[in-house]
Every structure is written in C-alpha cells, then in structure tokens.
Specification:
The structure holds three protein chains of three kinds.
Chain A: H1 3-27, H2 30-53, H3 63-80, H4 85-107, H5 112-132, H6 134-137, E1 143-144, E2 149-152, E3 156-159, H7 162-185, H8 187-197, H9 199-205, H10 209-235, E4 237-238, H11 245-258, H12 264-284, H13 291-304, H14 308-318
Antiparallel strand pairs in A: 1-4, 2-3
Chain B: H1 2-6, H2 9-40, H3 47-65, H4 68-91, H5 99-121, E1 135-138, E2 141-144, H6 145-167, H7 169-179, H8 181-186, H9 191-213, H10 223-237, H11 243-260, H12 266-283
Antiparallel strand pairs in B: 1-2
Helix pairs in contact in B: 2-6, 2-9, 2-10, 2-11, 3-4, 3-5, 3-9, 3-10, 4-9, 6-7, 6-9, 7-9, 10-11, 10-12, 11-12
Chain C: E1 8-19, E2 22-33, E3 37-41, H1 48-56, E4 63-68, E5 71-72, H2 78-84, E6 86-89, H3 101-109, H4 116-129, H5 131-135, H6 146-158, E7 164-168, H7 176-191, E8 195-200, H8 203-209, E9 212-217, E10 220-226, H9 235-241
Parallel strand pairs in C: 3-8, 3-9, 6-7, 7-8
Antiparallel strand pairs in C: 1-2, 1-4, 4-5, 9-10
Helix pairs in contact in C: 3-6
Classes of the chains: A mainly alpha, B mainly alpha, C alpha/beta.
Amino acid sequence: MTDKRHSILFWSGFAIVMALLFVSPYVLPPFWQRFLTEVLIWGLLAMSSDLLIGYTGMVSFGHSAFFGLGMYGAAAALLMFTPSLVLALAFGLIGAAVVSAFVAYFSTRLRDIYFAITTLIFSQIFYVIIFTWTDVTGGENGLNFPRPRLGIPGIWSEPFTATTLHWFVLVVVAGSYLILRRITQSPFGMVLQSIRENEPRTRAIGYPVERYKIMAVMLSGLFAGLAGVLYALQNRFAAPDFVFFLISGEAVIFNVMGGIGTLVGPILGAGTFLLLRELLGRIFGENFPYLIPLGFIFIAIIIFMPQGLLGFARRWLNR
Amino acid sequence: MGFLAAIPWDQVVIQTVNGIVTGMILALIASGLTLIFGIMDVVNFAHGELFMLGAYMGVVVFATSGNFWLALVLAVMMVAILGAAIQITTLRPLVGRDPLTTILATFGLSLILQNYALWQFGPVPRKIGEPISGHFNLFYLEYPYYRILIAVLSAGIIGAFWLFLKYGKYGIWIRATTQDRVMAQAMGIPVPLVHTAAFAIGAGMAAASGVLFGPLVGVNHVMGLDWVLKAFIVVVVGGMGNLGGAIGAAIFISLLEAYASLVVSPAQAVIVSFVVLIFTLLFRPTGLFVPTPK
Amino acid sequence: MSAPAAASLVSVEDLHTFYGKSHILHGVTLHVGKGEVVGLLGRNGVGKSTTLKSIMGLVQPTKGAVTLESQPIAGLPPHKLARMGIGYVPEDRRIFKLLTVMENLRTGLDRAGVTEARKKELLDKVFAYFPVLGERRDQAGGTLSGGEQQMLAIARAMMLEPKIILLDEPTEGLMPRMVSQIREIIGVLHKEGVAILLVEQNVPMTLEASQRVYIMEKGAIRHHAASKELNVNDPVIQEYLGV
C-alpha cells in the first residue's frame, strides 16, 4: 500500500469514526451516551499509557497518580476560584505535570520491572498523601465541586449539557489522539521506539536515552492528567480511589486488551472492558465480581493474543 | 543531652519488638517472592493474594476444627497446590517471553484472587484465634506471647527453608536452576518441574505468613496489596533474588516503619519504606544488603 | 560419506537449525560410533557449537533427525537427554559458580537409581583423575581457575555416566600444561568406552585424540576423514582451517 493511499484511508476512517461519535448524542439513550463519554475519557488515559508501554517499552503501574492529580488539580481550581473551564484545565495539567516530572526524574533511571515497581510505589505515595491529608483533600470522602461553564473566556459561554460535554470530551480526546499519533511518528517517537527495541544500542548511537525517557513519561503523564480533568468535569468530584493503583492497573489492562503500540487499540480495550463490565453487571447483578471473568480474559489475551484485540483483528482482516 | 530524656524510651522498645515481629512475617513473604524471582525472573504480583488466601484458608480451617496448627498446615498445603496450578497454567506458557508479561499475568491473577476472596468471604474482616494465650508485661503494655511465637515460627520456617536449599538434593536443584537454567537442564535437572515446585514453595511460604498474621489483625480481601508492596520493597532493597538480603531488609524496613509510627500515623509510616526503596534504587540499585559487585 | 546407522551411537541426519531468521545449520550429517572419539573442526561461526546444542536439545532443529542408539531423540527436552546418557560440556564451561565443587558434581549425581556406593565410586574416580577437585570440594566453583573450572565441567558431565560427551572447545584459553591434561582425560574416557564428539580449534590435539574428524564450513560438513590420514599441513586442513 502506498503512503498516499494509506493516508487517505486513515483520514477517511478517522472522519467516519468522528462523525459517528459526533452524532451519537442524538441516537443513544442517556445512559449509553454517558457511557460512551466515559469510554473516551478512559481511552485517553489508556492511550497516554500506551506511549510508554507500546512505544517506549516501559510498563507504568503509576498512571493513577497522573490521572488523580489531574482530577485534584481541577478540583483545586474549581473550589478556589470562580469555576472556569480554562483554569480547571490549567490547574489539572500543572498538577499532573509537576507529579510526572517528579516521577519521571527518578523512575526513568530504572528499567523493566524496576520501572514498573517504582511507578507503582510513587503512585501509592501520592495515594497515601491524598488519603491522609484530610484538611486539604477531603481524605477518604474526596472533594465535590461545581462544573464550570463551557466557553471561551470573555467571548462566549454556556452551561455544559450531557451533549456538549460529550462533544467537548470528543474534541479533546480526538485532538490528543492526533497529537500523540504525530509524536509517535516524529523523529522523537522513532527514538522512543528504538529505545524499546534496544536501549543500549540507542545509547551507543549517541541519543541521551534518559532525557528521551523523561520526556516520554512527562508527556504520558500530561495526557493522563488531561483525562483526569475530563473525568472530574464529568463527575464533579475527586476521590482518592482514582489515585489508587487499581486505576493504573486498569489502564494497563485496556492496553493489553486492545493492543499495545497502536493508540487506537487502548481506546478499543477500554471500551471492551467497560462494556463487558456493564453487561456482566446487568446479567448477574450489581455485586457480581466482574473482575474474575475479566481477569481470566486478560490473562488469556496475554498468553494467546499478545497483539491484543486490534492486532488480532488486523491479522484476521489481512488473511 | 537533654533531648535524650525527651525520647519515650518505653515506646521505642515496644516499637522495636513490634518491628521485629512484623519484620519476620515480612521476611517470610519476601523469601518466597525472591525465590520465585531468582529462579524464573517472575515478579509475582499475586504474591500478596497468596498471602491473603493463606490467611482465609486458615480462617476456614480454624473455624471448623478450632486447631491453629492444623489450619497452618492445611492452608500452606492448599495454597502451595494452587501455586503449582497457577505456575503450570499461567506462567509456563510465558517462558521465553518478555519478563514484563509475567508481571501483567500475575497482576491479572491478583485481581481474580482478590475478587474471589471478596465474593466468597465478604468485606467484613475475619480473625483466626490465637494458638497460645497469655502475655507478659512490657512497660505499660500486656504484650501477648503469641506475637513472640509468630516471630519465632517465621524464623523457624525460614531456617528450615535455608537448610533445605543448602543441603537437600532438591535444594541444590533449585540453586543450580537459579544460576544457570540451561546448564541445569543439560545436567538432567527437570527445570520445568523445578520451576513449578519453587513457585509452590513460595506460595506455601506466603500462605504460612498469612496464617501467622491472621490472629494479629483481621483478615480481609485487600490485605495482600499492602504486603506485596512491602515485600517488593524488601526484595529490591535486599537485592533481587538474594535470600539473606531480603531477610535483613525486611527487619530493617519494619523497624523503620515501627519507629516512624511513633511520630506519624501508621498509614503515613509506609511512606518511609517507599522512600527507602527510592533511595536504594537511585544510589545502589543492586540492593543495600548485598556486597558491592566487583 | 555416511556410515551405517546401526553401528553408530549418535547419528545426525540432514540437520537444519535457525536462530530467529538466520539459517545456521544447512543439513549437517554426522555419526559417532560407540566409544569413538570424533573431532569436529572448522573456523569460528561455522556452526560447530550449534550442532552440539542441537543434539543436546538446547536449540530446536527445524528439520532433520537425531538418534541415540537408533532411537529418535530430536525434540526431547535436554534433561531427558542427559538422563539417557548424553553429557554436555559447553564452550564457556558454565559451571554453577555459587555452588561448591561437590554440589556441582551432585547436580549430575543425584539421579534416581544411583546407589550410595555407586555415587562414592564415581566421585572417587573423578577425584583420582582430578585431585585438585577433591582438594577443593567445598570451595565455590567460581573461585576455581579457568583450567580447574574446565576439569569441573568435564567431571560434572562424567557424573551422568554418559554414553557420549559433547565436548565444546575444552582447551580454549588454557595453558599448555592444562591442554595436555585435557588430552589425557579424553584418552581415559575413550579407554572407558565413553564416546566423545569433540569440537575444537586446536587441530593437532584433535587429530591426536580422535579416530575420525569432520570438517565444517558454512553450516555443513565439507570433509570427513580418519584422523590418521590427515596431518596439520594437509591441503584440506589448510583450505578449511588455515588462516
């Protein structure tokens, strides 16, 4: 396939998916509408972690820290000032950036399992701080806050509705996707992939591998924080549960299920996971331990389908 | 030297005893974790859940038989068998793949086991009865003998494990396989079987610590995570795959946490061990408790 | 060129082995008779070690047959082959460095069906051949010198009471005195009826120690002769091994 044809195919596919997601509020009942918005948000978190897992070969078990700090950053902006969308985004991103710079500086000196364990430990540190610093963070109960208005400061604004929130999330997630895609195809992204393939050789060629990894973790953390802000906007609360390592674990599951190193795969993985959870809950009741069957599916995918659902589908289509 | 008087020495002594007791339990868990890592490069994320399941098995057997020792033996056996089954079904197919896949797979297992425990036993913590009653006076505290017994039993199990590794035929097999898997096979050692057995032994040790820990605090389905995190820290600080280092690190970190909890709440005291881990990784990634590599 | 299979202890027929996508062995065929010492010569990287690893089951050949006493053994796991009587002494010796000399030997000795008396007999025998191992039996393997480690690697393989030992460059990097000691041990093993497939760079030693030699190039056997018929200056040796 030529590059040009490939590119046409990509953009037409992208346009179709965008159009479908854009009109979905007119078609879907409110519950599924909200569900779809949420899938997009979790998809963004999963995509951000794919930059590390799939493109740089580092498995992060600490993305909940970035996601959570995005949430609490947004919460801080919305509680301290007149609720403003721009401020919420800015504070959330700053929160995530500070945390990810810190984590990146320390954890990127380590490889493989050491990186995974260190990121997990860091996220637990933030979890403990948020959980126990009750005066500021609300502790176990978390924080509730009003939702800001949608708009451009000084020009136009209106209250969010379920539909406009969905569109807003869609625009942010699609934009993030395009940026991440651009990053992975850029020379910078190529260096990341060469780190994944052979780190010592990449260093031997003369690339400052540590600096690239720090950049990768920070970028990944920023997008995870953005997902956290979106989640905060949707749900109007921030809670320590979202800083807990289970969220990081879910981000990893989304990646493995959908197919690492594809960006789209993790969104697909998030969708599949959440849909299965919803369906299992509906069939077997609210208290059904859905993570048991999903855990088995997850392990089966690792063993039998290491390319994930997307990789599997691709190979099946190419046959 | 007036500040010395300001230190509550009675509390320091109590925390030292507490630190050693939890340190021995932690050492028991971490020994299994480091054995499994050393021999098959698997970072067993589900190790905390094996500890937790051991504790629950202990609860169940104790509730039906009333015999603590029977609970200990049965829980160890059942979890060891479960460990063998896990190794054969989940980890054996991943031999030769990126070691990171084994973290992912064992993470999946930990989710399954944790949610199974929640589903089976509910969210209310359970307790195992103490095997011996009675206490002695430690300053203002009536310190239960049982806690001392835990430390002694843990040390005994670790000691037995060490003797087995050092002198047993299968201990030599395990050590040979840990050092050079390929050559061990070429010498006729059935390596896949040794892997399964090592995983079962590690699982059994985790279960033993779960049962021993059971009477101290309630048994619940999330207890595994705290302990596996601590065990990870201990294994890294002690030097991956190094049994002696893991034991030293377990006691060191438990003492630090015990002392820290004099100043801050126990929930915050865990941060101390996190910080120890981070500094270890930054300045001495081969572990604090190993000789400097030449 | 191929000998009748019935007479051979180990037969390799048309063996093809890949490492990933690179084709290393292009149809290797060779035979080792009972109690026979056979040399396998060739330059670096022609596939000599890979041939031994393929026989030992450490790499899986994609095509071809390996038989031990006419029984097909390709695809069997290495630990089974070791129990069936194939000893392996790899190029880099790979002794268990943290295990003591005695424990290294026990990895091969602690098998089902070996009586205590027999164990003692086997140990006494290797300690007679290699007194230094007896003296250092409680010392960690990693503390031995290179030559001593080589002896330990051979002694360890002997604990399996093998029918054949696959010996990969045993004299590499050793002092001349050690080389002649290795040469002696090959002679002793031969006298005891143990077959040896000897991979070497040391041509004179190989020609002296073996009955037959195969010469490999580019993943295949190019020449096969009785050792007596060749000498170091033979044009064949010059062609395939000369520098």
